[in-house]
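WARN no homologs supplied; continuing
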Amino acid sequence: MIRERFNQTGLKVTPLGLGLAALGRPGYINLGHAADLSGDYDVEKMEAHAHGVLDAAWAGGVRYFDAARSYGRAEQFLASWLRARAIAPEAVTVGSKWGYTYTAGWRIEAEKHEVKDHTLPVLRRQIGESRALLGGFLNLYQIHSATLDSGVLDNREVLAALADLRDEGLVIGLSLSGPAQDKTLLKAIDIRSGGAPLFGAVQATWNLLAREAGDALRQAHAAGMGVIIKEALANGRLTARNDDPAFAARRRLLQDAADDAGVTIDALALAAVLAQPWADVVLSGAAQAAHLASNLRALDVVWRDELDERLSGLVEAPEQYWRTRGGLDWN
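OK structure emitted
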């Protein structure tokens, strides 16, 4: 993969990146996550496992890596890998996020796995934690799951602090969630500080089941923002692991299209996102090197209008999609 301009941010990224949400903590909502970690949650073993997947990503050409304060020890695992492999800061682009605090205590069964808080004290604490671990590798710092009802985009103290971080050299972004992703993003596009846009990047969910943010993402990209797509595989629902009887007909449709393209379902689903002209980075959330290798095959798929039309019936209503996602089990 070739590192390309991350729109107008001044950073460079590869079309596929690696997200560490499923690698930095014992529990996550991806289908089959427990099997990926083999039920062994010893910290040193999980760190070694994460390093193995990161090695596979590096060998496959991935140069964008995504973490967050709430992803357990993801920042720590990424930082120790970067140091152990003597990777230069200019060779990679690293993004992280603030606004959620990990609260599961390294357990699968937890009352709450993460707590959302978009206040200024949390920003100040978490940027310090991220910088202590990632140092000069940190390029992009994002509000984690900004929504209109969280009020973060109306918090003048927080916005001013983010503007200060921007002026210090960080690209400031926001990640989105929920059926109103588009409305949140359109509001963020218009926020300015010091005569310039505050947000240089956005990370949003878009996949073959959830396309509601597409037009807003196009507008964000046209405004100069870098666009990162997360959950391109819908937390495993767009993979061979989805054995939900209610999804059987759609799975057959996906499998037939994937067979015709000569790839797996996951690679086909990722290719659909890579084909969007406004998508700068599409994240793989793989927690196994073998799954990452399958994901990378998406780069070989030639996406055609016929494929898009063939799979257009997969789209779910936004409320249904996010309700289903909210019901996925931590495992």
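The chain has twelve helices and 14 strands.
OK
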